[in-house]
């Protein structure tokens, strides 16, 4: 069947987006890519659990994704750096040969032209100097190219990019090869078998030769492909010597393409035509340099690794993706172009990386937190019932939206604080390593249960700051102490209390989520505590300052102001300091 009938992608309605790397150190990789190649972080996201499309590989725990490149992902190829917490290295395989990057031998510009050579981009001398400062060895080849290794051992080929015409002037921006990332080179077991997937099934156009492809190999049995009209990097397929099988190791990556047509449409059409096997099938075998004959397996050139799925990002439209594999195991991510364009659109702060929070979670070589089993058990005992656990950024976003005003009419408060302006939800921020958090856990659960039983419609949550680090950024200036109790409405904190005092917690809850009967909360010693300015114990003054001063920030109270008060500091990377308890 002709390639043109294989699907919408065959008509040039797709382009290369990015290659996915697994990295053992995000900071080290960004330093390498930034110093040597001039790339920068474009956007960054943290996730509490593995990606349902396995973007981070076969790992179910906490991970992060950082897009790194030269500019807009809508027009330039990028790298997706996935970091799995607790995984410091990955066994390399034989899937990715290298990525070719523009590197101009000689100089571009001159003082008379207004550009000093040392400040011109893509200069070979500058790239090698930066690599040497980082201790990265350079391997020089007979054709003048140079290979550099990333901190994880990935190979980057520096190619003198004069044949594409991109080395001089901005006019070359529209030329094929103008993207600074020139080529993605993959090993395959059998070239003819690989071309059945990439050329015939996906509909990529094959270059007549490698002469016009910067960085093209001189090895035999190689091919170069692009989607028609795509000016990004070429895909190079090179057959392994003696037809050896591809070893994907643990570091295997993924090549992503944006397609104007729905990934689900392309996926379904490839299935209908028998060009790929359904999800859950084994990969089509490669036997003696050709696909095994007979039946559906003989026709298929790959399989569906993941059926089409919509991936969600808070504040952004869903992005539809479908994940395929060729017979060598190389992964392909088909991404809906419309959703991706909105996801990749620049927004202030999208590239922010909270290195302190990452360090506290054991990221990038820092020691992971050591939970105390007894403290973890205390929090586990307090969950359930009316106190709901928040385990992801998505759940945090949902919890930050208070119930509709009609469900919980605000009660006038004498303090006039922001919390009285409408209904709120309450989130307890804690750490399993914090003894003060464990001490107040059951008290919070009992108070929340009592308030709900008396008709309060506010919902009560708790979140481990190690599991949901986004919670740290909800408070102006950053959340630096736990336990912290946050009254949230419309995605922002409107009042807060930090500490473990039973009395102050009761007053805070009665103020932000007042029971309809106007009565307070009975403490373990029999005292009844109400909202600020309406306490049955008749104590106001300094004791009422927490909520009266509350705004989008932490309360000013600390240890020593109340019996049993205490907290644990989480703001310093690698260290947590506890406050003394007041007897």
From TrEMBL:
<dbReference type="InterPro" id="IPR029068">
    <property type="entry name" value="Glyas_Bleomycin-R_OHBP_Dase"/>
</dbReference>
<feature type="compositionally biased region" description="Pro residues">
    <location>
        <begin position="402"/>
        <end position="411"/>
    </location>
</feature>
<dbReference type="Pfam" id="PF21701">
    <property type="entry name" value="GLOD4_C"/>
</dbReference>
<feature type="region of interest" description="Disordered">
    <location>
        <begin position="556"/>
        <end position="583"/>
    </location>
</feature>
<dbReference type="InterPro" id="IPR037523">
    <property type="entry name" value="VOC_core"/>
</dbReference>
<dbReference type="InterPro" id="IPR043193">
    <property type="entry name" value="GLOD4"/>
</dbReference>
<dbReference type="InterPro" id="IPR036249">
    <property type="entry name" value="Thioredoxin-like_sf"/>
</dbReference>
<feature type="region of interest" description="Disordered">
    <location>
        <begin position="398"/>
        <end position="420"/>
    </location>
</feature>
<feature type="domain" description="VOC">
    <location>
        <begin position="15"/>
        <end position="161"/>
    </location>
</feature>
<protein>
    <recommendedName>
        <fullName>VOC domain-containing protein</fullName>
    </recommendedName>
</protein>
<dbReference type="Pfam" id="PF00085">
    <property type="entry name" value="Thioredoxin"/>
</dbReference>
<dbReference type="InterPro" id="IPR013766">
    <property type="entry name" value="Thioredoxin_domain"/>
</dbReference>
């Amino acid at each position: 069947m002709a390639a043109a009938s294989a699907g919408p992608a065959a008509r040039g309605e797709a382009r290369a987006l990015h290659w996915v790397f697994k990295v053992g150190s995000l900071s080290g990789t960004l330093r390498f890519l930034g110093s040597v190649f001039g790339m920068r972080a474009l956007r960054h996201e943290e996730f509490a659990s593995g990606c349902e499309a396995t973007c981070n590989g076969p790992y179910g725990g906490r991970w992060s994704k950082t897009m790194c490149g030269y500019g807009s992902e809508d027009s330039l190829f990028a790298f997706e750096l996935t970091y799995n917490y607790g995984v410091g290295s990955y066994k390399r395989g034989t899937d990715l040969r290298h990525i070719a990057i523009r590197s101009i031998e000689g100089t571009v510009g001159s003082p008379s032209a207004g550009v000093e050579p040392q400040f011109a981009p893509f200069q070979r001398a500058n790239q090698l100097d930066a690599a040497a400062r980082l201790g990265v060895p350079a391997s020089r080849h007979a054709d003048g190219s140079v290979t550099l290794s990333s901190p994880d051992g990935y190979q980057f080929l520096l190619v003198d990019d004069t044949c594409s015409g991109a080395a001089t002037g901005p006019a070359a921006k529209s030329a094929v090869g103008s993207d600074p990332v020139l080529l993605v080179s993959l090993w395959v077991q059998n070239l003819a078998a690989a071309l059945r997937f990439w050329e015939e099934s996906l509909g990529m156009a094959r270059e007549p030769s490698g002469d016009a492809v910067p960085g093209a190999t001189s090895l035999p049995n190689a091919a170069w492909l692009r989607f028609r009209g795509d000016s990004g990097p070429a895909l190079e397929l090179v057959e392994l010597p003696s037809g050896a099988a591809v070893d994907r190791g643990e570091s295997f990556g993924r090549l992503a393409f944006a397609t104007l047509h729905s990934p689900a449409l392309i996926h379904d059409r490839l299935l209908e035509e028998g060009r790929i096997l359904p999800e859950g099938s084994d990969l089509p075998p490669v036997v003696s340099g050709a696909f095994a004959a007979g039946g559906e397996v003989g026709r298929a050139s790959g399989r569906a690794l993941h059926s089409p799925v919509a991936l969600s990002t808070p504040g952004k439209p869903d992005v539809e993706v479908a994940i395929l594999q060729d017979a060598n195991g190389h992964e392909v991510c088909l991404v809906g172009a419309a959703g991706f364009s909105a996801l990749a659109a620049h927004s202030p702060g999208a590239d922010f990386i909270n290195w302190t929070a990452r360090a506290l979670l054991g990221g990038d070589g820092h020691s992971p937190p050591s939970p105390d089993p007894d403290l973890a058990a205390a929090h586990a005992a307090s969950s359930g019932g009316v106190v709901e656990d928040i385990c992801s950024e998505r759940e945090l976003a949902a919890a930050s939206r208070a119930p509709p005003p009609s469900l919980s009419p605000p009660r006038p408060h004498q303090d006039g604080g922001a919390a009285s302006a409408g209904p709120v939800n309450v989130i307890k921020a804690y750490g399993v390593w914090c003894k003060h958090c464990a001490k107040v856990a059951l008290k919070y659960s009992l108070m929340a249960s009592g308030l709900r039983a008396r008709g309060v419609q506010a919902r009560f949550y708790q979140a481990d700051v190690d599991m949901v680090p986004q919670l740290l950024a909800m408070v102006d200036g950053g959340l630096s102490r736990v336990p912290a109790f946050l009254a949230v409405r419309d995605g922002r904190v409107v009042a807060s209390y930090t500490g473990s005092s039973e009395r102050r917690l009761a007053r805070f809850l009665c103020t932000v989520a007042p029971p309809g009967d106007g009565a307070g909360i009975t403490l373990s010693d029999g005292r009844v505590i109400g909202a600020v300015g309406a306490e049955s114990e008749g104590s106001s003054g300094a004791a009422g300052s927490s909520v009266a001063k509350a705004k989008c920030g932490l309360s000013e109270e600390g240890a020593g102001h109340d019996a049993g008060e205490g907290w644990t500091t989480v703001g310093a990377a690698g260290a947590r300091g506890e406050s003394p308890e007041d007897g």
